Amino acid sequence: MVSFLPLELDPPARPATHRPRARGRPKTPNRLAESPRVAYTPAMPDTAPNRPDLPAEIARRRTFAIISHPDAGKTTLTEKFLLFGGAIQMAGQVRAKGEARRTRSDFMQMEKDRGISVSASAMSFDYGTYRFNLVDTPGHSDFSEDTYRTLTAVDAAIMVIDGAKGVESQTRKLFEVCRLRDLPILTFCNKMDRESRDTFEIIDEIQELLAIDVTPASWPIGVGQDFIGCYDMLRDRLELMDRADRNRVAETIQIKGLDDPKIAEHVPAHLLDKLLEEVEMARALLPALDPQSVLEGHMTPIWFGSAINSFGVKELMDGIANYGPEPQPQRALPRQISPEETKVSGFVFKVQANMDPKHRDRVAFLRMASGHFRRGMKLTHVRSKKPLTVSAPVLFLASDRELAEEAWAGDIIGIPNHGQLRIGDTLTEGEALRVSGIPSFAPELLQTCRAGDPMKAKHLEKALMQFAEEGAAKVFKPAFGSGFIVGVVGALQFEVLASRIELEYGLPVRFEPSQFTSARWVSGDKEAVDAFTNANKQHISHDHDGDIVYLTRLQWDIDRVERDYPGITLTATKEMMG
Ligand code: G4P
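^ Peptide chain release factor 3, sequence as received from the core. Prediction below:
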């Protein structure tokens, strides 16, 4: 699990060319500026910029998320990104200590117990001349809606697969979400230090299951115990893995083509023969890298490596820099927003409450859509048409959050607030623009929520509304009767909710089976809606926005409404638009 709060760090990573440092804790382990950097100079861009017209500060930004099946190595890879970005000193050994150092993504005991990342955060770090913004996505499928919204805030995704397992179910689902948005995808095939599948088989599986062209950016040499590194297909060089030091950057050997006799000095004959044969086949059978096709989401370059051994990670990072997209235009109404527009705009894709249990703050995560934001700017909150002075925006660095003095299109900042900002809200310098395409899905599981102490009903309402606004659950207030019906996508969310309501509000609650199993938003002209709601009172409720929701147990009911009330539309998704 990645840590976002002060961490206990082991001694700094040993730079490859230096003698070992004395062991011991650095005095100020959390100051990024004082972190010793890994002895590695990131590659400068190999390719010409796609958009030479973009301001340099915007063009250097890469905003992405990692998608993977649990256990494929997302957390380990994230840590290595932070390590090579100079944001932490030693990955794999970071650990939170004690209550005060509870990592931010760990603040729910639930999450700690189960080892699942249920909350998403954003991290920024520099890599060479680039600024990377990495948005964390929850790995568990029960939190798919959160993941979906997170993916609306990024310009690309890194798909991590386990070399032994190939494309797993959750990867596939997340990939489909990326495809809906035509997100460019870069693939990292992890755990090559273990027995893994044949390279062609892995590539074929991705091509077939995900219907995307795959181009090898690197080619593994040996497998499992015999895995010694990769041949970099794009830069024609060998990268050899150092099994002895997991935090050291791999050795790079420059070669001049695969017939360079220098290769034989580093690769045993039997592995070399296989490599030569496979690379020749790969070049003949697989498509060559087409950067435009990558940007359009039709082709994915694949790197092979071992995150735990820090191997293949910097090549992937160079790949993100070189072939990943710059900040992209955002769909909005009544017009699209381009990143280079001088006026600032951004949209909220996530709200997280009580990040610090000691303060009841809420942080709205804003993806900057355009312009150059400076701290203290007065923006317009388009939904309420009210001005909002953003005086304490935060930037999420690997081990801390800091005041953001400025931000550019592509960046993600956190805005502490008392509930004014909701998912889907747009902030601009005055223009009434509303970013679109952030969905809310009808829940698949519904339960009635009751406070253990009936006198605490008001408190319960407050807590539930907060979670609804945060996007953690759907909360419906039935028009008839008392209590609340809570809707979620996956059963685990009920457990997380119960635990958070108790932890954050000191309120024990019970979830009980509800008579309903489905919810649909109701729309239509006023007369038709009124007639419908009057005739179906027992099934009507309102969500936290006050929108009308039809609750039922039977698909048959939904079909009946559609047949009997032609003026009414029932929908399973609602666009969250501020
Ligand atoms: P996730 O976030 O995608 O769920 O995966 P995570 O990084 O937590 O990795 C899952 C397990 O796989 C961890 O082992 C991790 O150490 C291991 N792992 C990650 N990358 C590699 C790799 O390149 N090679 C090998 N052999 N293993 C790798 P664990 O036993 O579950 O946890 P831990 O005790 O190592 O922390």
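The chain has 14 helices and 33 strands.
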